[in-house]
Amino acid sequence: MSEVNGPSERFRLHVNGADREVVDAFAGASLLNVLRDHLGLPAVKGACEQGECGSCSVLLDGTLVCSCLVLAASATGREIVTLEGLTPAAGLSDVQRAFIEEGAVQCGFCTPGLITAVHDLLDRRPDPADADIREALAGNLCRCTGYGRVFAAVRTAAAWRRGEAETH
Amino acid sequence: MGWDAGDIVATMSVTSPDSLDAALAALADNPAAHVLAGGTDMMVELNFGRRSPAPVVSVGRIPELRGIDVDRSARFVRLGAAVTFSEFLASEAASQAPALAQAARTVGSLQIRNAGTFGGNLATCSPAGDTLPVLVALSATVELASRDGRRRVPVEEFMVGPKRSALKPGEIVAGVTVPIIDGWQGFATVGTRNAMVIAVCNAALVVDRHDRSVRLAMGSVGPTILRAPEAESVAARMLFGAEPTSARADLLVEFERRASAAVSPIDDQRSTADYRRHAVGVIARRLLDRASREMP
Ligand SMILES: Cc1cc2nc3c(=O)[nH]c(=O)nc-3n(C[C@H](O)[C@H](O)[C@H](O)COP(=O)(O)OP(=O)(O)OC[C@H]3O[C@@H](n4cnc5c(N)ncnc54)[C@H](O)[C@@H]3O)c2cc1C
């Protein structure tokens, strides 16, 4: 049994492959709040704080969730991966490159959540049909780019994974 | 939004027991503690200051609450309370309770289905909860556990009002048992888009060939999930009676009329009561129409 007491008790999270000490978060804080404001991972965006927009999407034990709906202090002992953890040490991931290639980024606020969701989709389903893409991204709201270019980016990243050559 | 200093309560604590007994002991010691599973309902309330911080017992990782069992000879599916919608959909249980799978697949988005649980949907007990009409139509049984023991409650008795359940202090939902039906079952819902909607109204229809019964359960059209016995008897006549095929269209219309007459919806920001009453009759009729065509 693990226990976290009091408004500012310490707890430890496993984030992007490393143990991270959380020293000054409140026990009621969301994982979004802790990742962003305490552990300095700004790819985790906070917008709606009610699970509607997907900007704060992270992988929790390999499963895509909204970090705003995870109680941070309950995530001890679990494997947390943010977009920072999906980005190679040098360069960009194939999904990130595909978003650039297809112009799927406008204001950029929803982009980290979308890219995290696309990594999750392509890892589960390397060759998704359009209906799969729509269902997988239904929880990520974009209000300026629109979804056409995002869907194109998913198809492009899937094509690269099938071995089709990158064009740039 | 979020936390400010005024919200902080020094007694907030988070306990993550690794067994059901430990969780029940923790709750017995502190009956005011909040049970946390996937967090998809509770965290919204916490983030928006609608739930005051309190000690939390986190049950989402307890192995005894995460089991999915399919017993084909005893003809039931059992889902542990902490089973997520996604885990259920990926399991063989989904094909044994197809209407429940249809409902689970309409919940929120992938992110919500990956975190949200059956126990949380039951305990929240929203009249719009998508699994609830299906569980009612399937005559599911809710298992409750406390340090004092276990009890089993029909889901219709578990729901006592809007957001009010039969859960007692110190008690948690341990799981839900769903009969495997020989017949037909389906779920339908009305909302403004395919994903991420709270139902304007929803409905489940179960046709049980074994006892020649039909059960219609409707959500978001009353304080709890509502059955419609008078509509059900029309459906049973249509599917199992000696009615001529020419009577089919009239029976469908009569079924729709009786389904609409059985509800007591309210006006709110999602819909008017009038539209709900109309729409729930329409989806009920479509379900019966599909059942009559698809039943082998
Ligand atoms: C963006 C969004 C979309 C949603 N869409 C839908 C939808 O389409 N359809 C739908 O039905 N719901 C929807 N919901 C609501 C929610 O996802 C479901 O009700 C879900 O089943 C809640 O489960 P949970 O494990 O996340 O509950 P939690 O948030 O962990 O808990 C919810 C409540 O249940 C209690 N509880 C949880 N588990 C137990 C237990 N085992 N025993 C006793 N009490 C328990 C908690 O104390 C709390 O009061 C949505 C929520 C969000 C944020």
Descriptors for this entry?
heterodimer, A: about 170 residues, alpha+beta, Ubiquitin-like (UB roll), DNA polymerase, domain 1, 2 domains, five-stranded mixed beta sheet, 6 helices, elongated, B: about 300 residues, Uridine Diphospho-n-acetylenolpyruvylglucosamine Reductase, domain 3, Enolase-like, domain 1, five-stranded antiparallel beta sheet, four-stranded antiparallel beta sheet, 14 strands, about 25% strand, disordered N terminus, binds flavin-adenine dinucleotide
Order of helices and strands of chain B: EHEHEEEHHHHHHEEHEEEEEEEHHH
Measured as a percent range, the helix fraction of chain A is: 25-40%
CATH superfamily of the largest domain in chain A: Beta-grasp domain
Look at the helices and sheets of chain A and give the structural class: alpha+beta
- The CATH class of the largest domain in chain B turns out to be Alpha Beta
- Going across the biggest sheet of chain B, name each strand in turn: 4-5-10-6-7
For the record, give the distance between the C-alpha atoms at the N and C termini of chain B, rounded to a whole number: 53 Å
Largest sheet of chain A: 5 strands, mixed
Fraction of residues of chain B in helices? 25-40%
- Order of SSEs of chain A: EEEHEEEHHHHH
When the domains of chain A are counted, the total is 2
The SS-based structural class of chain B is alpha+beta
CATH topology of the largest domain in chain A: Ubiquitin-like (UB roll)
The strand count of chain A comes to: 6
If you average the pLDDT of chain B, what whole number results?
94
| Spatial sequence of strands, sheet with the most strands of chain A | 3-2-6-4-5
Q: What name does the CATH topology of the largest domain in chain B carry? A: Uridine Diphospho-n-acetylenolpyruvylglucosamine Reductase, domain 3
Oligomer: heterodimer
Q: Which blocks of ≥5 consecutive residues of chain A have pLDDT under 50?
A: none
Radius of gyration of chain A: 17 Å
